[in-house]
Automatic annotation (TrEMBL):
Enzyme class name: lyase
Keyword Lyase attached: yes
EC number from the UniProt entry: 4.2.1.2
Protein name as catalogued: Fumarate hydratase class II/high-affinity iron transporter
Protein origin, superkingdom: Bacteria
Length: 137
C-alpha cells in the first residue's frame, strides 16, 4: 500500500513538472504565430489579400502580443529585436496590401518565422518564464 502511495505521489509530481515546463516554453507561442502566418500566406497565394492581411494582424495581436512574447523579447532581449519583429509583421501586411509577388511575401514570412523560432529559443535559453507575463498575478 505504501509503495502505491509513493508511486502516486511521484507520478503527480512528475505531471506537475511537465505542466510547469510547458508553461515556461516559448516555442508553442512561436508555433501559434507561425501557424497563423502560414495561413496568411496560403490565403494570399489563393488570391485573398484581405483575409491574408487580417491573418497577419491576428498573428501579431493574437499569440505574439496576446501571449506576451513581444513583451518578453522587449524586456529580456532588447527593444531593437522587438522593434525589428514588429516591423517585419508590418512589412508583410504592406507587401500583401500592395500586391507584392507571392515569392516576396513567402520570403518575408519565412524570415519572420525563423526570427520567431530564434527568439523563442533565446527566451528559453535565458530561462524567461511565460508565467511572469500572466495577467492578474
Amino acid at each position: 500500500m505504501m509503495v502505491v502511495r509513493v508511486l502516486c505521489l511521484l507520478l503527480a509530481m512528475s505531471a506537475a513538472s511537465v505542466a510547469q515546463a510547458a508553461d515556461e516554453d516559448w516555442m508553442p507561442v512561436a508555433d501559434q504565430v507561425i501557424e497563423q502566418l502560414e495561413a496568411a500566406l496560403a490565403s494570399y497565394q489563393a488570391g485573398d489579400a484581405k483575409t491574408a492581411r487580417r491573418e497577419v494582424i491576428q498573428a501579431y495581436f493574437g499569440p505574439f502580443e496576446g501571449e506576451k512574447m513581444e513583451a518578453a523579447i522587449r524586456s529580456h532581449l532588447g527593444i531593437e529585436p522587438a522593434f525589428l519583429l514588429e516591423r517585419q509583421f508590418g512589412d508583410i501586411r504592406k507587401d500583401i496590401k500592395s500586391g507584392a509577388p507571392e515569392n516576396e511575401v513567402a520570403t518575408a514570412v519565412d524570415e519572420l518565422k525563423q526570427a520567431l523560432v530564434d527568439h523563442a529559443k533565446q527566451l528559453n535559453e535565458a530561462g524567461v518564464p511565460r508565467s511572469v507575463y500572466e495577467v492578474n498575478q
